[in-house]
Amino acid sequence: MIIEQSQHIIDEVSKVFIGKDEIIKKVLMTIYAGGHILLNDAPGTGKTTLALAFSKALGLDYKRIQFTTDTLPSDIVGFTMLNNETQKFEFRSGAVFSNLLLADEINRTSPKTQAALLEAMEEHNVTVDGVTYDLPHPFITIATQNPMGSAGTQPLPESQLDRFMICLSIGYPNLEKQIEIIKSRRYDNPIERIEEVASKENVIEVQNYLSSVRISDDVLKYIVLLCEKTREIPLVELGVSPRGVLALVQMAKAHAVLEDRIYVIPEDVQYVFLDVCAHRMILRPQARIEGLDARDILNEILKEIKNQCDIILVDIHAEATSEKIAMGFYLDGKVTCVVGTHTHVQTADNRILPKGTAYISDLGMVGPYNSSLGINVNNAIDKFITCRPVRFEMAEGPNIFSAVVLELAEDNSVKSFERILFNEE
Fold this sequence. Notes:
Strand content: 15-25%
Oligomer: single chain
Helix content: 25-40%
């Protein structure tokens, strides 16, 4: 359901935002994660068009502020005024009272006006004349800024940059896509052809669903190690904050959902790591002297800490009954399937694997549970996270398949493992 709905959204937005499906996917992930987006790129690359397209495809209440030097905080949050008829003060809401707020060229306004967004972005409410007003739900801010021609602009302070879940650079389309963009506007504006394929209720539903996406302690440790490393490198003056760590967790969950999984693996973290963390870092002058930017440093961190999370334990549930039937392992860059537990495993050839071992198939494919191998599974472990049902596939031939036997220590950590072959008969 979520996968199909998300693909419909991406298809609709790509009608007008051509050739940048990866950007569309990341923006949608951020919306699902309940975060805000900063688009940092040159003029004319489609930043405003992207925001408008999402508002139409998702059926969101959309408002836009074109920030200038004379934009006031009251233009954003609203103000109270005297009603001459009733002789009472009444609140007039500002542009922030919407589902999707486009803050266009946010770096061209004063710090006082920029600060008016802080409470709204973090707390999802605003306070005017001592009265707090809740914002509509969901509330997403898409802010744009132009890194070129920065004369007369006010760079966003670190406290506000940190409130953006991701920062994206769109870049120019290639030759073929530019021709496609020109042709798409031959007779009308393609923004008018975008259909509403989801609703704000659908967005809220997915945002709530993210809380059920499982993430193991190993993956959490991997995330924390990555972010801690940004604070230890001598070339970095300011590393990723705890808020950034939380953002990385949410974005990893959102990516897992779009990959049709209800558990997070390290590849989810690696996919969003640069976009979540680069704008939160401040580099020392020595880094610029050496020609390095934040993304260069983050790539080096990924290379250094890439092997911290080789094996992740997961649970397998039957599709029809939701009964736990096995465990799964994330191993060698993919999720494989355990067809037994650490307590008792009987294989198709009636071999009983002793306590302290687990037997897993080499290939794990999503599908209904296949018990044709005659495997008995007892005493499944409760402590591990849930993944989708798995169908066992032959890896070495029509009757022979490869497997891995893992010896588990008493604390369920992997003590050793070896790859072996089994005959189906």
